[in-house]
């Protein structure tokens, strides 16, 4: 019997251990009031953990903001390069 507060952790650990140990056979499981067969436990074990899902969500939220910052700063960077080129041209003359 395996138990965890995270609904994904116990099936992952049990499935990983069952792969390396022939004596452990997963017959089923329960999640809240839902009973699961062996395939249900294996499909739960294949899901990413809660921390992995949170990291993916934060990454999806941050990516558009980063792209917006790059697009907004690009014209300013181009102006800085133009001003720098004019400054070097004036120094050379």
Explain what this protein looks like in three dimensions:
- The chain has 93 residues and is mainly α.
- It has 2 domains: 9-46, no CATH class; 49-93.
- The protein contains 3 helices and 2 strands; from the N terminus they run αββαα.
- The protein has helices at 9-20, 38-46, 50-92, and strands at residues 28-31, 34-37.
- It has a two-stranded antiparallel sheet with strand order 1-2.
- A hairpin with a 2-residue loop joins strand 1 (28-31) and strand 2 (34-37).
SSE layout:
Elements: H1 9-20, E1 28-31, E2 34-37, H2 38-46, H3 50-92
Antiparallel strand pairs: 1-2
Keywords:
single chain, 93 residues, mainly alpha, two-stranded antiparallel ribbon, 3 helices, 2 strands, 69% helix
Mean pLDDT: 83
Decide which structural class fits the backbone: mainly alpha
What is the H/E string?
HEEHH
Range of helix content: 55-70%
Largest sheet, strands/sense/barrel: 2 strands, antiparallel
- According to DSSP, the number of beta strands is 2
Multimerization status = single chain
Gyration radius (Cα, Å) is 27 Å
Strand proportion:
5-15%
Rounded to the nearest angstrom, the distance between the terminal CA atoms is: 83 Å
Helix count equals 3
Number of domains: 2
Short description:
The chain is mostly helical and 93 residues long. It folds into two domains: 9-46, no CATH class; 49-93.
């Amino acid at each position: 019997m395996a138990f965890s507060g995270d609904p994904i952790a116990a099936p992952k650990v049990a499935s990983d251990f069952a792969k390396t140990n022939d004596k452990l056979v997963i017959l089923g499981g329960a999640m809240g009031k839902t009973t699961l067969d062996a395939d249900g436990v294996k499909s739960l074990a294949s899901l990413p953990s809660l921390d992995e899902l949170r990291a993916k969500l934060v990454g999806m939220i941050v990516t558009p903001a980063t792209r917006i910052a790059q697009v907004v700063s690009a014209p300013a960077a181009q102006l800085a390069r133009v001003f720098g080129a004019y400054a070097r041209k004036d120094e050379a003359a």
